[in-house]
Here is the input.
Amino acid sequence: MKKQWAKFIVVLILYLLFLYWVKSWLGLIVVPFIYDAYISKKINWQWWKDSEGPIRFVMSWVDAIVFALVAVYFINQFFFQNYVIPSSSLEKSLLTGDYLFVSKVSYGPRIPQTPLTVPLTQHTLPLGNIKSYIEWPHWDYRRVKGLGKVELNDIVVFNYPAGDTICANMPYQTEYYHLCYYYGYQAFAQLHPDVQVIDTLPKAEQLRIFGEVYALGKEYLKSNALEYGLIDTRPTDRRENYVKRCVGLPGDTLEVKDHIVYLNGKPNKEPDNVQYQYEVQFVDRVVLDDAMLKEHGITCEDLNLTPPDRAALKSDGSIQLINSHVMMPMTKSTYDFLKSRPDLVESIEPVKSTDMWDLYPQNGNTHWTRDNYGPIWIPKKGATLKLTLDNYAIYERPIRAYEGNTLELRDSLIYINGEQTDEYTFKMDYYWMQGDNRHNSADSRYWGFVPEDHIVGKPIFIWWSSDPDRSFISGIRWNRLFRVVDNIK
Here is the structure.
């Protein structure tokens, strides 16, 4: 009996400390059950052990599975979870196929907003394309105190902000809002072939036109549900997980000039492995040997080799390029290496982007590009912004979608929650996230700010790494196993 009391006291203390940490004393209703499990034993928690035959066998497995699922849910929710790098947006800092140990404690875990969810799923069950969560109850955002806050140049895992609305039949990388504007522009041009150049119009008229463009695109997607699927929404903590580098903090003014990020007028330190796109003319039918590919981290994706083209990947790991003209991302060290090898490369030229339409905000008519973007002020909790027609498009989404206000434009006047105003005080901190593969990264330049309630955690180390271009043992990146992510700058 003394042992049982000792176990009960230890478990009770740990449980009360947990409740104090999460500041949720509602959990005290569990204390009588803990007491019963260790001391009074009025409830026969393992009644099935007295049964015979298949009942005992089946229930022993059910008991083990339920315990494991509850433990996994608890650990993933409050302490850490696994995350795999699905794309090349952070290469060569984090590689496609890296499995990360992500700490929830670093920035403080969020109290679950949709608590009734199947463990080990984000939003969809593995079979049947069925939601893995129930939207009721839905709790307001609250974060438990962590070890620290997001710092400049941290690599951060967060929920994809633009993933609040989806087309059910489209892959997660396809943003609903981009589709709305893409098809909306086409429909608008057909309806208004005589419209003036938008730059010549007053700002209020520009915003009205962009509103019509968006509405037309939204209606197009809705009327083509067989192709795009039903339009659905996801709560914050059930949106896709993304991982990027934080290059702008709350209250900073960020600007990208000639692809370099500036904060408050000063250039931010670039990651050691930052990549930019280059136009490369290789020597005709050149063969790139395996040792060189591994040393410089050149992948099939870098060389634009899609799966059908990967027959060019030989059994010895080398690649013979069929198409010698390639647009590829490179670090400075890879650029210097290839530049010094005329036996491999005839010419290398940097790629400059002029694309504007798909950058955030898509209704802003800013003429920004991915290499020359901003300046843009990053909202800070408690800070008051002077709202104007010029910055309306930039801060419309945070005010309306992330902070739950109604926002309208009537006769060139701004109304928030039905009241005319020219200022707004933000309720949350926001961050600016970009990938290290700067010309191949869907990041804040395309979908805007990351609110604090979307922050998931901080990657601590790489516990496994598998090269998708290679198979079995040869695909294991032994030098990356248990590498600390903090050292990747």
Remarks:
- Residues 3 and 337 are 67 Å apart (CA to CA).
- The chain is about 25% helix and 20% strand.
- The first helix runs from residue 2 to 22.
- The mean pLDDT is 90.
